[in-house]
Design goal:
Radius of gyration: 16 Å
Number of strands: 7
Number of helices: 6
Distance between the termini: 41 Å
Largest sheet: 5 strands, mixed
Low-confidence stretches: none
Mean pLDDT: 92
Order of helices and strands: EHEEEHEHHEHEH
Helix content: 40-55%
Oligomer: single chain
Structural class: alpha+beta
Strand order of the largest sheet: 5-6-1-4-7
């Protein structure tokens, strides 16, 4: 059974960081093998399009402090929480990120985004009160 997948991002982060966190988290979800690719597509003119994931991924917003709490709640609920930590911004390689994480206490790791994967009921329960990212960014710009 395909798990429910939701991205939760900090709407106060710069747009480039939101895009980067989304790309890394999406690639991470795909690399885990939890999500299947659909069949290739063909448009009305016969042009072929490579397959994309057969999953709807809502993109929601939560402030950075809430992302830390959401990660902990996900772990407690048995939901996988893939995190994009602030330390990833300064790391040129995964080895550098691993070294930075090993030298940083958990309380000092800030999170810019999460990908939550798990049973629909559990993921919905964790994200029920969150707004769509687009709504939160639009409101922040006003």
């Amino acid at each position: 059974m395909t798990p429910r997948c939701v991205l939760v991002l900090d709407p106060a982060a710069p747009r480039w960081l939101i895009a980067n966190a989304s790309a890394v988290l999406g690639a991470s979800v795909g690399a885990r093998g939890d999500v299947e690719l659909g069949p290739g597509l063909v448009d009305a003119t016969g042009s072929r399009w490579p397959a994309i994931a057969e999953i709807v991924v809502p993109v929601l917003a939560a402030p950075a402090a809430e992302l830390v709490e959401l990660r902990a709640a996900a772990h407690a609920a048995g939901v996988t929480a893939l995190a994009f930590p602030d330390l990833a911004r300064a790391a040129a390689t995964y080895a550098e990120l691993a070294a930075a994480m090993a030298a940083t206490p958990a309380a000092e790791v800030h999170i810019h985004g999460l990908a939550l994967l798990g049973p629909d009921r559990l993921v919905r329960g964790l994200t029920r009160g969150l707004r769509a990212l687009g709504d939160a960014v639009t409101e922040a710009v006003r």
